[in-house]
Amino acid sequence: MSVAYGGALPQVDVTWKGEGGALSVVAPDGFEISPDAPADVSVRWADRQVTYAVSGDRIVGGIDLWAVRGERVEGDLKVTLCDKADGVCEQLALAVRGDIPEEKKGSVDLQVAVPEAEPTHSTEGPAFHTDAQALADAAFSAVKGTDRRVLLDFSAVWCPPCNQLAAEVLHAENPPAILDEYEIVVLDADDARSWALKDRYHVGGYPTVVVADAKGREISREVGFSGREDFVRWLTDTARETEPAIDYTEVDPTTIAAPEAGLIAWNLAKQREKGADIWIARAEEAEPTLELRLARALTAPTIEDASWLADNAPDRTLDWLPGASKLSSEDGGTEVLELAISRALVDAEGEKASDLLYFSAIIADDDPLLYAASASALRAGFTGEPFRDRALYTSLAGLLEKSGDVPGALSFLHGVQESFPDEPTFLLKEAGIHLRAEDFEMALKTGEACVEAGWGDNRLRCAALVCEALVGLDRSADAAKRAEAVLAEIAAPAEGLDVRAPRYRKKLQAFADGG
């Protein structure tokens, strides 16, 4: 019997007395809540939210709420329900809601339902502000008993490479056939309901794409997006993998041949994983390979490696340039980098040409004319379709700002905001531009609109911009109050979860403390 669709749903109770309250879960007759299995709860009411990642026994015993009487309570719940007769267990993702009376004390049963899973593929782009855990659970259930894999796309609405991945591959009008091998689920990295999964799969930068088997074991991952061709090649190679991924940060490098160590070093370096240095050291015991030189140029650049790459791999320049752009001009680094960029520009256009010109501007001490040229090249690559071009919109605005055309940057952002009125992405960018221009009134206005449109981590980032604007207006006391209000409104992650939210909260806390 399928618990989720057989009608045997748990009972969810809210009890309260005065300002204190608690939520608990009661298994239906013949079932029990698995005491050791993970359980997640996210409950919202009024302007508050609490999120817990605990074990089943805590859910049964009750978790703390506060000041819920007279409020409409809504939320999401994940528990594992086991049939006492045969011991079969099933993980449930449930939606709960209900109205709490005004009485000083009492108890009510919330309405419990199984939400419909969000579609896993759409040519209209990914949905955000969604329940990541429920979507992932549905995807793993869909591949159970098959040879298919789950593709977990940890993404953010404001993230340019995430939007490129969506437009060019995962939600493209002409998706690659290899996607049929995968159950695709987009996980909103800004939403608190993604925290447990981000921690489980050690997600840092976005996008992080993890391919896992039906048991949730990681097969492979890709961090960032370097283009459709490379991504499809990775998907194709990963589809052939039969064993879980090897964590090379836990492997003794001396057990791997030195030439192969260079490839491992490069994979770790480009995905911003720790431990690339020890694999570089192992690879250096043999003749340098292309991958070893790429890894060193990205993490510990030298003139020698940059020169070799400029001469022998001009098509790979953008792979190592972000790390090597800091080479000292006193040692001839500027000349080597300029040579590498000029060779790569010969066959470059659109976004690639823009990126090369961007680094040229940095090397030339932030030359505004080169930033303007970069902006022009980027705009020339636009298709005119907002879904496909949106990944480049904030980049163009940033280049226009750096070129000195602040009015042009703001005008452009106002135009694209009309195409995406319900999200904070372009308001976030605009507020930052106003702050750097010291137009604190407009930064405050735009920042508040960003907070209103935002959620989760991006709401915290918007609120920090609001506080910066208030401080710029000599309203530090108001900034402290605003920071305190947002921090109270958005629940902090449980201690020990490795997610980004604490760094955003830390910045707001500094404003709350008057810093």
Oligomer: single chain
Derived from helix and strand composition plus strand pairing, the structural class reads alpha+beta
Estimated helix fraction: 40-55%
The fraction of residues assigned to DSSP E strands is 15-25%
Sketch the major β-sheet.
9 strands, antiparallel
CATH class of the domain at 132-239: Alpha Beta
CATH superfamily name of the domain at 132-239? Glutaredoxin
> What is the arithmetic mean of pLDDT?
89
From the 3D structure, determine the CATH topology of the domain at 132-239: Glutaredoxin
Please tell me what the overall shape is.
globular
Total strands: the figure is 13
Distance between termini?
58 Å
Low-confidence stretches: 1-6, 117-123
CATH architecture of the domain at 132-239: 3-Layer(aba) Sandwich
Q: Kindly provide the radius of gyration, computed on alpha-carbon positions and rounded to a whole number of angstroms.
A: 25 Å
Number of helices: 21
Describe this structure in words.
- Among the domains are: 11-113, Immunoglobulin-like; 132-239, Glutaredoxin, CATH 3.40.30.
- Helix content is 45%, strand content 18%.
- The chain has 21 helices and 13 strands.
- It has helices spanning 56-61, 132-143, 160-170, 195-200, 228-239, 258-270, 276-283, 290-299, 303-312, 317-324, 333-345, 350-363, 368-380, 386-389, 393-402, 406-417, 425-436, 440-453, 456-472, 476-489, 501-512; strands at residues 11-17, 20-26, 31-33, 38-45, 48-55, 63-66, 72-83, 89-99, 105-113, 149-155, 182-188, 208-212, 218-223.
- Strands 1, 2, 3, 4, 5, 6, 7, 8 and 9 form a nine-stranded antiparallel β-sheet that branches. The chain has a four-stranded mixed β-sheet with strand order 11-10-12-13, with helices on both faces.
- A hairpin with a 2-residue loop joins β4 (38-45) and β5 (48-55).
- The radius of gyration is 25 Å and the shape is globular.
